[in-house]
């Protein structure tokens, strides 16, 4: 009886061994797979603790105290609420009974931003309203719309002064230390009809539509109180450390949501662990090239949020987080939470006899070629043709 030869995928097996992987065809690049940086919160079952976690009651109390200091006062909340309420009433009247006003037609008005999300910080008493127009947002129409709203709000407020300012995004009204920004956009079918010479900038228009999507997602997925506390603390951190400025409010929202809820138990982590985890993730390269990062839940094609930053900004955020994490690991949380003078991310500091030196940049921006140099390097014939 004839014995059959052993065969496996890719041909006959020799010596009882399966053949190795086939080489990539010529000209075909291997598939790019972004990687997630090491995250102890996700790997803790694989790396169990050798000893119990140190008592961090003092650190937790400091975080909660700082959150209370950042939380707007009742007077600030009331001032913003009153102005928002009057503005919404004015806008509703324009939608329902526009009368002789025909400069534009309103499709919808939506609250967005930190006021809507409940993450507003004291001293920055600003609420945002996105006004979606059915008509094209010409600059002339926006100016007339601003004048109409300003007049109606002044009538509603009586003798109280209401200031108005036209901006590239629309206009804003201020009263009693509170400000409401009216962000003008238009419906999606009108995006292709925009003329840069007549209408508001297309990128600004699209960013306002994105803000509506962000607000809707946040309301559905990030309503946990710990997430709002962490967002407020992260925004304060970004404000005081220059290296974290490239992080947008939307990046901080997603980072806080990820740090609080993305864990094997799917339970909200304590604020002290989540705060440290944010710095650990940034320091490990969460927002660096090649990282899986955080996928934007409001955009298509699996867009990663950190790609909105330049390579130089990504490096700056990472090295700043690494320095702050080293300071935090050696008990310097008070300096991180309460002040930054001198700047611990640019000056050497000592914590518990440990010297923490600022890190150097890993990314160097390539020099830009000048047009004159390009002309000199070009062949004589091409130069003559040019």
From TrEMBL:
Residues 373-386 have a biased composition (Acidic residues). GO terms for biological process: positive regulation of DNA-templated transcription. Residues 361-372 have a biased composition (Basic and acidic residues). One of its GO terms (molecular function) is double-stranded RNA binding. This is Interleukin enhancer-binding factor 2 homolog. One of its GO terms (cellular component) is catalytic step 2 spliceosome. Pfam families: DZF_C, DZF_N. Its main location: nucleus. Keywords: Activator, DNA-binding, Nucleus, Transcription, Transcription regulation. It is found in: Nucleus. Residues 1-24, 359-386 are annotated as: Disordered. The keyword Nucleus applies. Residues 22-376 form the DZF domain.
């Amino acid at each position: 009886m004839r014995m059959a030869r052993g065969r496996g995928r890719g041909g006959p097996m020799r010596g009882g061994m399966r053949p190795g992987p086939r080489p990539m065809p010529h000209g075909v690049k291997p598939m790019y797979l972004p990687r997630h940086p090491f995250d102890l919160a996700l790997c803790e079952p694989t790396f169990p603790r050798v000893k119990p976690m140190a008592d961090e009651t003092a650190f937790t109390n400091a975080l909660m105290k700082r959150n209370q200091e950042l939380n707007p006062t009742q007077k600030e909340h009331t001032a913003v609420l009153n102005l928002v309420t009057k503005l919404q009433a004015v806008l509703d009247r324009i939608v329902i009974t526009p009368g002789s006003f025909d400069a534009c037609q309103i499709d919808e008005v939506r609250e967005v931003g930190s006021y809507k999300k409940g993450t507003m910080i004291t001293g920055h008493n600003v609420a945002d309203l996105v006004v979606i127009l059915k008509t094209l947002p010409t600059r002339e129409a926006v100016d007339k719309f601003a004048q109409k709203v300003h007049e109606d709000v002044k009538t509603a407020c009586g003798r109280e002064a209401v200031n108005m300012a036209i901006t590239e995004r629309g206009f804003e009204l201020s009263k009693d230390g509170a400000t409401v920004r009216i962000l003008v956009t238009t419906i999606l079918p009108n995006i292709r009809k925009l003329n840069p010479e007549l209408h508001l900038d297309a990128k600004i228009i699209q960013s306002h539509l994105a803000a509506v999507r962000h607000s809707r997602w946040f309301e559905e997925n990030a309503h946990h109180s710990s997430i709002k506390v962490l967002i407020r603390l992260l925004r304060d951190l970004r404000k005081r450390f220059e290296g974290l400025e490239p992080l947008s409010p939307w990046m901080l929202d997603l980072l806080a949501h990820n740090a609080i809820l993305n864990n094997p138990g799917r339970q909200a982590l304590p604020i002290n662990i989540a705060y440290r985890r944010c710095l650990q993730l940034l320091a490990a390269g969460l927002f660096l090239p090649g990282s899986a990062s955080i996928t934007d839940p409001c955009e298509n094609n699996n867009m990663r949020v950190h790609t909105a930053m330049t390579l130089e900004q990504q490096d700056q955020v990472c090295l700043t987080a690494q320095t702050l994490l080293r300071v935090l690991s050696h008990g310097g949380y008070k300096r991180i939470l309460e002040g930054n003078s001198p700047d611990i991310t640019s000056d050497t500091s000592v914590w518990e006899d440990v010297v923490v030196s600022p890190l150097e940049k890993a990314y160097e921006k390539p020099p830009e070629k000048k047009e004159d140099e390009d002309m000199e390097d070009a062949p004589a014939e091409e130069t003559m043709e040019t």
